[in-house]
Structure formats: C-alpha cells, structure tokens
Amino acid sequence: MKVEATEVDGRKVFSVRAFNQGIAVWLERLPTVWVEGEVTELRRQERWASVFFTLKDPESGACLSAQMPRGQFDGLRLELVDGERVHVYGRPELYEQRGDFHLRVLTIERYGLGAHLASLERLKAKLAAEGLFAAERKRPLPRIPRLIGLVTGNDAAAKRDVLTAITTRFPPARIIVAETFVQGPRAAPSIVTAIADLCERGADVVIVARGGGSFEDLLPFSDERLVRAVAACPVPVVSAVGHEQDTPLMDLAADVRASTPSVAGRLVVPDLDELQGGLERARTSLRRSARRIVEQRSERLAATHERLGRAPLLALERRGSRLEATHGRLKTLSPRSTLDRGYAIVRAGDSLVRELPPSGTALGIEVAAGSFGARTE
Q1: DSSP alpha helices (H): ranges in the chain?
Q2: Same domain, yes or no, for 156 and 259?
Q3: Domain limits at 58?
Q4: What is the per-residue pLDDT across 2-54, written as a single tens digit (0 to 9) for each?
Q5: What is the DSSP letter of 269?
Q6: Closest to 208 (Cα-Cα) out of 176, 185, 238, 187
Q7: In a domain, 216, yes or no
C-alpha cells in the first residue's frame, strides 16, 4: 500500500495515520527473528484473544512488548512465569491505531535454566509414569546395618558431616567410603558405578551425599541413568544432596531423603545410648518377669505339696466313710437284723420251711436269743 503525503507550504506532511501505515508496511518487510530475554509482566485472561508479556534484557534492562495468540500460547504448555529466560521467534509489528510497536510471537522456547527445568519436568513425568517414584517401592532402612556404603566427593564437609553423625550415634558402625565426581558430566556415571561397587562389597544401605551448590552443580543428580540406578539398587538408598530446598530427581527415587548429609548419618544408625538404655530396660523387665514367674510357681508348688500331704488322710477318711456306709447297709440286710425285730428262722432238717410241713415234722426254730426244737401237729 502506497502512503501519500500532503504538500503544505512546500513540505511533505504525513498524517499520523499515514505515518503509522508506512511504518507498519516497512516493518512487514523485515524477516522473522529470534529474540532472547526474560519474561515479565505476563498477562493472560480467558476472554482475551492474545497473551501479552514483555521481554526484558537482564543486562541492560531494555524491554520489548510481545503478544501471541492465546490458542498457540496454551498449546505450547510451557507454564511460563515471570523471570524465566526464553527464546522467542516472531515478527516485528506496529499497531497502527495507537502506534504501539511490539513483537508478534510465533513460538517460544525456554533457554538456559528454563530449558533445563522444562527437560527435567518431562523426565520427571516420564519416570513417575513408570512408577519409579511410587511410595510402595520405598524400603525401610535396616535397624542396625552391618556395613554402610557412602558415596561422596572429596568435599571434606559433606563426607565429614556424614561420618561424624554416624560415629557419634553408633561408634561400632562399619563404613566404606567411595569418593567420586559429584559435579560435571562425569559425575552421574561415576556415582552409578560407585553404588554398584558398594553393593557388591556387602553394603546393606547406601548414602549418596553432596553439599549445597547451584542448580547446574546439582544437575547430575537428576540424570536419568543415576535415577534408574537408585531405583534398581538392591539395598535401600538414602539421598542427601544439597540443601532442604533442593530436590533433584534422585531424591524422588531414593528410599529415604535426608535434608542434609548430617541428617542422613543420623537416619541410618540407631543411637547407641538409647539402644543400651532400651536393652537395660528390657533386661530389668525380664528379671522382674522371671522373679514373678518363679514366685508364682513356688506358691503353686507349695499349695500342691500341702494338698498331697493331706491327700492320704482324706482318702482314708473317704474310704472309711464308704466302708461304714456299706457295713450299715449290709447289717440292715442281714438275717440277724431281721431276727432282732422278732422274726424266726424255721428249718426242717437242713432246709428252710417255706410251706406248711406234714404233721409230726421235727422243726428247728432259730430266734435272736438262741434256738429250740418243735414238732408240727
């Protein structure tokens, strides 16, 4: 579109509208470009067709307005927040009505720390979907470990903190230390190798410890190889990397996360003083229980002895009573008892007379006081 000027007093004068149109046409000839900056003043609402934000140069403070269709912005799923560093691809554009210059954005990519964060989020989602961070995978630490493996760098502070915490709480602890790289590209594979070596040497719990550092310093502890090695480790793993606010992906795969190396040392061993106190209390309780059982058994034995001592006399008394009762019954049933009541026993010879005998039969009659003879008539 050709922009026309008006001749006024020998000079060409453009209207504001014409001037803005001319600049807009000229800007349309420029190619699409990549621009780097920090996102600030991000503004997005559901009823707006576009998302608005400002790109700021972190060194000079220079700013550039930018806008992007809301559908395209949402489709990227970047979840951008103010302060993130990005690379923006777009074309310069002028809003003619107000003369506002801005960058019409076609796509956005995180850069630097933002790119790493985005990559870590994707890896985190992938590993979580595989179940590597599931709570049911977490294993309890051994009550009293036979051998503790410690993976650390030659950083004296982290190693000293772990060793001091362990030996202070439980002096008899056996510890084997594997020093590795804990920063840079060689760190992740070195730590993976160290963990496997400690397991082969008999460690039944492994601590991976490193002091604090920048986000970039701690990136090896979010390496996929290391995270998978920790999840597949045959013994429980304690992660003690960085400070409380640092959460590398290894923390999520480890069986236990310690906020500092010192805390990790205290987690893997019991307190010897508390253990000895518990043993003494158990010993005292067992002693009291044994004494109580012996006393109870002694009382029962004495009672049994007393009962056994009385048993023969009681048995004789019971037998005597039964004998007397039997004698009484037999005496009651005895023919003599019948004679005492006025009855007599009549015999004809050796036979008892039960029927009337013939006249002249000689009889023998027995009564309670004696016997006499008689003859029937």
Answers
A1: 16-28, 70-76, 113-129, 156-169, 187-200, 224-232, 249-253, 261-268, 272-333, 335-340
A2: yes
A3: 6-111
A4: 666 677 777 888 888 888 888 888 888 888 999 999 898 999 888 899 999 99
A5: S
A6: 238
A7: yes
